[in-house]
Amino acid sequence: MSLTFSSSMTHFSNATEDYSAYYSLTNGNEHELCSVNHVRNFGQVFLPTLYSIVFIVGFIGNGLVLCVLVKYHNRSNVTDVCLFNLALADLLFLISLPFWAHYVAINQWTFGSIMCHAVTALYMMGFYGSIFFMILMTIDRYAVIVHAHTSLFSKYRSVKTATAMTFFMWVISLGASLPSIIFSEAKNETGSLTCKQEYPKDTQWNKVSYMELNILGLIIPLSVMVFCYSRIIPVLINMKSQKRHKAVRLILVLVSVFFLFWTPYNFVIFLKFLHHTGYMNTCEWHQNLNMAMQWVETIAFCHCCINPIIYAFVGQKFRNLAFKILKEWFPVCFGRCTIIISEFSERRRSSMLSRSSEISTTKIV
């Protein structure tokens, strides 16, 4: 995955790309190979460890979201349909991480050509699917809150409509992923197999792939979130509900987390684009960009671990259902937790009642 996933994803590229094309001028017509050994060695230790952590944490969180939604599917609504597919997209993305971790750890692709295409498909479909379903959930919230009294939105807002929109989003995700999937190739380079995008020479596919990541991965989703939530917040503030401040804080967290996790990654992607167009085309820039990609890519990947917390577990109802399932699966652990939580809640309630009684007595005196 190379685009090089340079762009996005396989910058494992760090560990697998053939860097013989990168040279720096020395004396006269002599050339010296731009060494990336220190970047590769760092990545072989750093990336597999963090990819494994992201995979474990993200798989548990998103898997629990799917289990709750499947078990209680009779209570589904439009939000649940979007949330289900968001978790599914994150899981597809996460399933690809162990393959990339193994790839970068041993500096060789050992899974064959078909798996190169398949794992790239999982990665890209999960990558774009996660972003597109966040956009869909944002638009749905905008329609429900800002246009709550518009008959057009209320008429067509149903599970059936959400299912149709879900299918449409997956089709778009596949379309955005196709170039990376098609041009992925497992080939023998310098004695070891690599899995990366091999774009046709003398074409603009490489540059287009970088711009696609920036536009679809940051500019469009961030613009939609800023526009929709900037209209939602004033409506919530004017409501008389006591929970409006909590809702506003949650919105600010949603936008801030997305911006903080994905902006560094997209900024480095843009610098990669400039690098491939001839700007900053030096050995030092090449080394720094590949080292930076390792950090920002891992930060961006962590977002799929945060999604279940932000979109699902923040709600009291969803937390209760998730805890109910965990108590059924692990009665020993979570059964005791239930007793402890119940005792704590009872003591807290008794304390509040006692305090209320004292205040009332004081007022009477």
UniProtKB/TrEMBL annotation:
Coiled coil: none annotated. The chain crosses the membrane at residues 50-70, 82-101, 121-143, 164-183, 215-238, 250-274, 294-314. Residues 61-311 form the G-protein coupled receptors family 1 profile domain. SUPFAM superfamilies: Family A G protein-coupled receptor-like. It comes from Hemibagrus guttatus. PROSITE patterns: G_PROTEIN_RECEP_F1_1, G_PROTEIN_RECEP_F1_2. InterPro entries: CCR1-9-like (IPR050119), Chemokine_rcpt (IPR000355), GPCR_Rhodpsn (IPR000276), GPCR_Rhodpsn_7TM (IPR017452). Keywords: Cell membrane, G-protein coupled receptor, Membrane, Receptor, Transducer, Transmembrane, Transmembrane helix. The keyword tRNA-binding does not apply. Belongs to the G-protein coupled receptor 1 family. PANTHER family: C-C CHEMOKINE RECEPTOR TYPE 5, CELL ADHESION MOLECULE. It is a multi-pass membrane protein. One of its GO terms (biological process) is immune response. It is found in: Cell membrane. GO terms for cellular component: external side of plasma membrane. Its main location: membrane. It holds the Pfam family 7tm_1. It comes from the Eukaryota. CDD domains: 7tmA_Chemokine_R. GO terms for molecular function: C-C chemokine binding; C-C chemokine receptor activity. This is G-protein coupled receptors family 1 profile domain-containing protein.
